[in-house]
Amino acid sequence: MSDSTGSPALRVRPRVRLGVLAFLGYLAVFYAIWIVNGIDYARVGESEDTLLRWYVSPLAGGLVVILVVVSVLGWWRPSLRDRSRLPRSAWVLPVLMAVVAILNMVFGDHSRVTPTMWLFLVVGSLLVGFNEEVVARGQLLVALRSRFGETGVWFLSTLLFSLLHLPNVFFGIGSLAILQVVIQFGLGSVYYLARRCSGSLVPAMVLHGLWDFSTFSSDVPYAGLTAPFLGVAAVVVVVVLLRRDERRAAEQAPVVDGVQRT
């Protein structure tokens, strides 16, 4: 069955409230597990025990929520794929972010990381890349596109993604969580570029997982120092490209009875 545009019909028609409820449902389970396990965010990468209880376990719980909710809604295909793409030149920032993450790992001191810790780091990073991208730049984009233009979709989805880090105020890093929220808005814009440049959510998942793997496994500051600059650049690039697309769409809109229709 297809809709009027020829696209496969979705099981549940996208609505903003459904996307936000799915987002909040994921966060409720994730943070509930954190609270039960006594999270201290600043110590997540400290040991095998902390990685298991504060990294892998809450993400595994959140994964269950995502798999159930997105399957019930039937939004997998539009969550994972985009028809339109941004110019390939916008790949520069996602690639640069990946390079910084790799350098962060290569030059870090991994002497304290045990084989079991490496396992938990890999599993947790795969989960965080999948979970947070599907919930924030996957199903949430599907929901927001039912009501907003793409600039609004980018802004609102990225804002919600950044705000999911705000509760860290209560989980061990205090007011630094506010700075984290600001930085994550910028990094979320890099992940948005990775999705829109490729037409797939997978590159954003990989980049997100790589970044978190790098920051939790390494003690060098390259990632933290470059993150604000990457973020600012990404926000500027996204705004410029989306406004250009909006102008192009307006110019190509049909004229009916002397009035241009958009």
TrEMBL record:
The lineage of its organism: Bacteria, Bacillati, Actinomycetota, Actinomycetes, Propionibacteriales. This is CAAX prenyl protease 2/Lysostaphin resistance protein A-like domain-containing protein. Keywords: Membrane, Transmembrane, Transmembrane helix. InterPro entries: Rce1/LyrA-like_dom. It comes from Auraticoccus monumenti. One of its GO terms (biological process) is CAAX-box protein maturation. Residues 116-213 form the CAAX prenyl protease 2/Lysostaphin resistance protein A-like domain. The keyword Transmembrane applies. One of its GO terms (molecular function) is endopeptidase activity. The chain crosses the membrane at residues 16-34, 54-76, 88-107, 113-130, 142-164, 222-242. It comes from the Bacteria.
